[in-house]
Q: What sequence folds into this?
């Protein structure tokens, strides 16, 4: 296994290697909260990061499987396209922001704005999420096994939110919706696939009431 | 791949990269001789967040109640020896004066208020950066690494300290506009963020008799705390009240004689991370600053919740 020690190798060298010709598995040691580790990967490699990372780790990931052994700073897996990113610890704010596909699993808690503007990514948080999570979420699923902070799903479009614990104040135009059998089965599959131990029957579903003015076709001429 | 999204979202996130805060409180007394070196490592790691100026507030060697300790800043060359002689003659007291780059720490057996009054009339060219019994504040324009070298941070001992690296957004790049800001005896404040109601608050505070010297928004936050503490609030009460009266984005770290406190605004756009081991408690804008500390691999690490006051050693 190739090893990049960030005490001696630069993040730029690591990312260049990952962009050029990565193969097999790769290990990153001593991340020490550095920014932009393992960003923009476009190959089906496995990357294991041993420690805590800073901003924007695993951003724009495509097909790679990235595991972060510690905590992640703001914007982890930002704009993820496909593949998977797994965080063993906690994630700071804006985890999975604007993610288009793939899977983001956070084994601890995520702070504010988890899944902000998500566009298709599946995010599974074993712990709780902070305020304004799934803000303007457009597509994909946000699964929270713990509690969700205030303003959940504010101005949400077609994304789907599942929460097992308590939910603070719901955001504008976000409402609780019926948990149909199809939703339970889909959630069950996602929990199994991500290895997160939780019973799909225990979750409640939230989504868009579609009452905000942007859902009203009469306003189409305003733009 | 997702370039448009990256750019569009960058406007939401890149704006946060301005100013860095660090703080460390030593639980293990044997680390006290190393405080300046630990703080320096944290501060330099925050250079990307604030290359315009750097500053620290450090608490050490408290003086007896009958004395006071002031940090003075001279914008131009100053004959510090002459100042010491003049002060000793005027106050009929022993004066210790230690020069550190453009600053000097004065310890004198006299009340702080009368020394400050005397300096204000006799030496208006000098600026009092801090007053109290243990606090020392040093701040200057330029890169943190230069600041650390010029002010010989690695030789400073102490019990706890705060640091700030500034990327100016609201007002000019000068030493006066740099952080930390003194908020009273042995108190100081560092700020990451921007306040939107600072002009109105500044007028109100001036009406209340609070001396605010610059057009800087963070100095208004410092003045606000000074006013509330003067009115009898505890530090916790003053910070709770700040949540309603201060409008804008902020992560504050507030240094006190015995420790420090941290407060984030309810929206919590500005980052903050905290960590604790058996030997120390630390806070920083980013984990990479804390990653410089010894024993960090065994630290408990968490993100402070919005609108919640955290404090140590009060």
A:
């Amino acid at each position: 296994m190739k090893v990049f020690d960030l005490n001696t190798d630069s993040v730029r060298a690591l990312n260049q290697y990952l962009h050029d010709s990565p193969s097999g598995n790769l290990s990153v040691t001593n991340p020490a909260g550095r920014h932009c580790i393992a960003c923009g990967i476009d190959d089906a490699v496995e990357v294991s990061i041993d420690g805590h990372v800073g901003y924007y780790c695993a951003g724009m990931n495509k097909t790679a499987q990235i595991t972060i052994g510690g905590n992640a700073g703001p914007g982890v897996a930002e704009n993820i396209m496909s593949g998977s990113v797994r965080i063993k610890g906690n994630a700071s704010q804006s985890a999975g922001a604007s993610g288009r596909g793939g899977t983001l699993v956070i084994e601890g808690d995520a702070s504010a704005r988890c899944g902000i503007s998500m566009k298709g990514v599946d995010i599974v948080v074993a712990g709780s999420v902070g305020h304004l999570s799934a803000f303007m979420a457009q597509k994909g699923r946000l699964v929270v096994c713990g509690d969700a902070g205030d303003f959940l799903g504010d101005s949400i479009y077609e994304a789907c939110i599942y929460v097992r614990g308590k939910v603070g104040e719901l955001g504008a135009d976000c409402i609780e919706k019926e948990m149909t059998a199809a939703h339970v089965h889909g959630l069950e599959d996602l929990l199994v696939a991500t290895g997160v131990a939780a019973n799909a029957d225990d979750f409640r579903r939230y989504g868009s009431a579609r009452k905000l003015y942007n859902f009203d076709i009469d306003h189409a001429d305003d733009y | 791949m997702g370039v448009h999204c990256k750019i569009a979202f960058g406007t939401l996130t890149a704006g946060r990269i301005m100013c860095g805060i660090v703080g460390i409180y030593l639980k293990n007394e044997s680390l006290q001789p190393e405080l300046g070196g630990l703080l320096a490592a944290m501060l330099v790691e925050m250079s990307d967040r604030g290359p315009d100026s750097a500053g620290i507030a450090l608490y050490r060697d408290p003086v007896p109640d009958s004395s006071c300790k002031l940090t003075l800043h001279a914008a131009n060359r100053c004959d510090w020896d002459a100042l010491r002689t003049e002060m000793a003659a005027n106050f009929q007291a022993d004066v210790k004066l230690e020069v550190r780059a453009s600053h000097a720490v004065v310890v004198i057996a006299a009340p702080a208020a009368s020394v400050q009054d005397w300096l204000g009339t006799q030496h208006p060219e000098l600026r009092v950066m801090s007053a109290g019994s243990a606090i020392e504040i040093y701040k200057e324009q330029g890169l943190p690494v230069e600041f650390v070298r010029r002010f010989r941070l690695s030789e400073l001992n102490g019990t706890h300290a705060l640091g700030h690296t500034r990327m100016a957004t609201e007002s000019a790049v000068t030493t006066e506009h740099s952080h930390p800001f003194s908020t009273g005896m042995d108190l100081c404040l560092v700020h990451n963020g921007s306040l939107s109601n600072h002009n109105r608050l500044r007028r109100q505070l001036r009406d209340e008799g609070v001396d605010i010297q610059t057009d800087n928004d963070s100095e208004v936050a410092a003045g606000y705390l000074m006013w509330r503490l003067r009115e009898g609030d505890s530090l916790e009460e003053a910070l709770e009240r700040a949540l309603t009266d201060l409008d804008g984005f902020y992560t504050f770290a507030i240094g006190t004689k015995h420790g420090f406190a941290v407060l984030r605004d309810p929206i919590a756009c500005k980052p903050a991370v905290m960590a604790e081991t058996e030997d120390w408690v630390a806070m920083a804008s980013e984990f990479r600053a804390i990653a410089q500390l010894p024993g960090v691999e065994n630290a408990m690490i968490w993100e402070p919740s919005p609108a919640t006051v955290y404090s140590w050693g009060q």
